[in-house]
Amino acid sequence: MPGHDGSEAITDSVTTDEMEEGKGRYELHAGFHSELLAKDRDVIVYLPPGYDADAARRFPVLYLQDGQNLFDGATAFIYGQHWRVGETADALVRARAVEPLVIVGIYNAGEKRVDEYTPTHDRRRQIGGQADIYGRFLVEELKPFIDARYRTLRDAANTGLGGSSLGGLVSLHLGIKHPHVFGKLAVLSPSIWWDRRVILRKVRTLEAKAALRIWIDVGTAEGGYAVKDAAMLRDALVRRGWVEDVDLKYLEALGAQHNELAWAERVGPVLEFLFPHGAQGG
């Protein structure tokens, strides 16, 4: 895999259906190298239906954490349980419910996942706190590579970031930190509990509202304080100026648990809210 010298990436198709009408296709960038992170990781890129039909067209981009769980049940954390992001995006693009978009799945770093996906070091657990370095990887290394290799719309209004659980936590943290890069956030079942709810303190002390369009959700069967925490996050954002059903969407998914199958059910609504058809850059 290249560094940043313009050398050619090694890509592999991960689908046999890329020539089928109305379906997107995939490119796998194996072992994407970072000078900032301790571990290289795979990056999988979904290109929407119609990407190859118009060489002049550019597309919005959504970057998603835990890339191994998004497109293929064979690579998912629990075998066979993945988000079905590609199938869902294909269907919504064909139905003209969402803008055709590029989706970048960033594989997590395995045993380093907790460190990279958390904004602070938890002294009690003695783990975490490398989210800002991971954010630099996204902003300084991965996004420039994606923008150079693919026909993307590069501004924040057309760039999203998302994930679930700790992936939701890091996406919200980095979206608030880099609103000039990421203007749309998909925050599914975020781990608000991390380090005594540090993310709530961060939102409550924001000096000014950022130009972010934010989706937040939680399943009512996730247990613990998950629903209460998510509602507190929503309320904190509303107090900082976000408006529900305008630039903030909040959902409590009835009966949904904290797992890939539950998040798969919400991919469609997330894409429709963040990338609605005809609202490019909105």
Category from helices, strands and their pairing: alpha/beta
In angstroms, what is the radius of gyration?
A: 18 Å
Number of domains: 1
Describe the strand arrangement of the main beta sheet, using strand numbers: 1-2-3-5-4-6-7-8-9
How would you describe the shape? globular
Residue-averaged pLDDT? 92
**Strand and helix order:** EEEEHEHHEHEHEHEHH
The CATH architecture designation is 3-Layer(aba) Sandwich
Reported by name, the CATH topology is Rossmann fold
By CATH reckoning, the class would read Alpha Beta
Proportion of residues in extended strands = 15-25%
Which blocks of ≥5 consecutive residues have pLDDT under 50? Answer: 1-19
Q: Distance N terminus to C terminus?
A: 34 Å
State the fourth-level CATH superfamily: Alpha/Beta hydrolase fold, catalytic domain
Helical run tally? 8
Biggest β-sheet description? 9 strands, mixed
Helix fraction, binned, reads 25-40%
> Number of DSSP strands?
9
